[in-house]
Structures are given as C-alpha cells and as structure tokens.
Amino acid sequence: LVALLTDLHELLGGALAIVTGRQIDAIDRFLAPLRLPAAGEHGVQRRDAEGRMQERPTPDLHGVLDAANRVAGEHPGLLVERKHAAIALHYRQAPDCEAVCRAAMAAAIEGQPQFELLHGKFVFEVKPSGVNKGIAIDAFMREAPFAGRVPVFAGDDTTDETGFAVVQPRGGIAVKVGPGPTQAAHRLDSTRSVFEWLVNARDLLRQPGAGGAAASPGGGGAHEAGHDGADGAGAGAGDGE
Questions:
Q1: Structural contact between residues 175 and 187, judged by C-beta atoms closer than 8 angstroms
Q2: How far is residue 101's CA from residue 103's CA, in Å, rounded to a whole number?
Q3: Can you tell me the distance from the alpha carbon of 228 to that of 162, in angstroms, rounded to the nearest whole number?
Q4: d(C-alpha 226, C-alpha 179), whole Å
Q5: Is 3 exposed, middle or buried (0-12, 13-18, 19+ CB in 10 A)?
Q6: Is residue 234 left, alpha or beta, with left meaning phi > 0 and alpha meaning psi from -120 to 50?
Q7: Which of 43, 122, 150, 236 is most exposed by smallest CB count within 10 Å?
C-alpha cells in the first residue's frame, strides 16, 4: 500500500491526501516513511502539501472522558479512545450497547455548543463543533496542488458523507466503500476493491498524455451506489466480491 500511494502521490504532483478520523501521527506511523498531506480527527488537525500543520486548540474534555470511562466500566466490551481533541467511545465488541453509548455521550455535552456528537461505525465521538471531513476537503481544494483539479474521495464510514457532499457538487467522484446508505454516486464492495481501483488509476496515470486524469471506479467490484444502499443498475455495474 505504501509503495502504491507513493507512486500516486508522485504521479499526481503531490495532490493526494488522507482525510481520516484518526490522528495524523497514527497515519504517519502506518504509512512510514511516506508523509502525505492529511486531515486528522475529522479536520481538527490538517497538514497541507508544504508540511505546514494547522491544529485547533484542545478543548476541555475531562467531563466527556469521565462519562465515557464510567459507561465503559459498567459495560464490558466498550473501549474509550482519547484523541488530541476528541473522545471516542467504541462499541464494536458490544453492539447491543449502542443506545447506552449514545445517551451517555449526548448527556456529557448537553448545553455545550462547542461540542458535537458524531456517530461513526460502532463509535460515538465527541469532537469540536464546526469541523468535519467535508470542510477539510474544501480547504485542500483551495490550495496548491489540489486547486483546479477534480476531487476524488473514497470512504467507508458514515462520517465520510460530509466529504461526498463537498466532492460531488465540484464535479468530483465520491466512492462509498462497503454496504450502507450513501449519497455517493459510486460504490466499491471492499478495501481490496479500493486497492485494485487505485492500482488501475496508477497504471492509467502512467500512460503518456494522462495529464493527471482521475479514473472513476469501474470493472469488477465497482457499481453505482443507490441512496438506499442497494446496488444501482447501469454502466459501471460489476461482480462484487
């Protein structure tokens, strides 16, 4: 994966970024030695193509952390994650606790408009208000080397919907990975399908005269995404894995 992303970064003239709910230093460790432009914690942290870091001040999260630890102590399988500017309560190992987690985290920030509650895949996360993946993508698209290009964004979480909402009005390509309802016009069935799509994009970009053109998902595993999560018909439909 690192070699593939390195190739794409070079072929795109640096216009490749990671937009994630994780912290940027965690992404850097995973992709070492590659250091890409990145937005972490849904845009709380952002590193531009020149390596300049922008970071919102860390809010006082002690009350939220106490609430998350309290409910995790009462329900085995829950995991509390302390980020730079957010608290995440994961319930993947205890899916029956979704309502309990939602109620606890919502109560922890009641009457505090500086926070908002984000619902991701088996996680509730309290983060600063006014930041999301879509806002982070919009910021990248206003800067070199992204400005003037067609944006392409793929993601597998409900939190990626804000990114899709920014990319598609710009004439870009939004790709939902995996099942679930989405506003994205395209879908890939698995992370393996994403890898294969990126390999195809790299090969296309290596062709003479490619000029940085983006490849929309197509072929095996790719199809149009219906808003209700159903497979769309028409061009691009293929055999999903």
A1: yes
A2: 5
A3: 17
A4: 10
A5: exposed
A6: left
A7: 150
* Segment holding 139, helix H or strand E: helix 133-141
Domains of the chain, earliest start first: 1-55+132-147 (no CATH), 62-128 (3.30.70.1020), 150-241 (no CATH)
Look at residue 223 and give its three-state secondary structure. strand
Q: Which pLDDT tens digits describe the chain residue by residue (241 residues)?
A: 999 999 999 999 999 999 998 999 999 999 999 999 999 999 999 999 999 999 888 789 999 999 999 999 999 999 999 988 899 999 999 999 999 999 999 999 999 999 999 998 899 999 999 899 999 999 999 999 999 999 999 999 889 999 999 999 999 999 999 999 999 999 999 999 999 999 999 999 999 876 655 566 754 333 334 333 322 222 222 222 2
The answer to whether 35 touches 26, Cβ cutoff 8 Å, is: no
